[in-house]
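Q: For a teaching handout, I want to show students what a protein-ligand complex looks like in token form. Below are the inputs, and the small molecule is iron/sulfur cluster. Please produce the holo structure.
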Amino acid sequence: MNKEQVKEMIEKRCVNFIMCTNSECKYYWEDMCTKNVGNEIVHIDDSGKCEDFEQGECDWYKEMEEEE
Ligand code: SF4
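A: Here is the structure, written as tokens, with iron/sulfur cluster included.
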């Protein structure tokens, strides 16, 4: 699923997503988790810490820069 499809789904309110504010993660995009949007499971440990965190920047930001 690309970001245009996600935007469309959000506008139509037909997608549920996990809100996340960890902008240091490669799955973070606009206060949501793109991993979850792709129907992948996000694993949270007993202390509330996300086990799927990976340092980096979401590819969608790079795509947005290229489009401008
Ligand atoms: S993988 Fe975890 S830390 Fe990264 S954006 Fe998703 S919920 Fe947030």
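A: Two things your students might notice: Residues 20 and 32 are 5 Å apart (CA to CA). The chain has one domain: 3-58.
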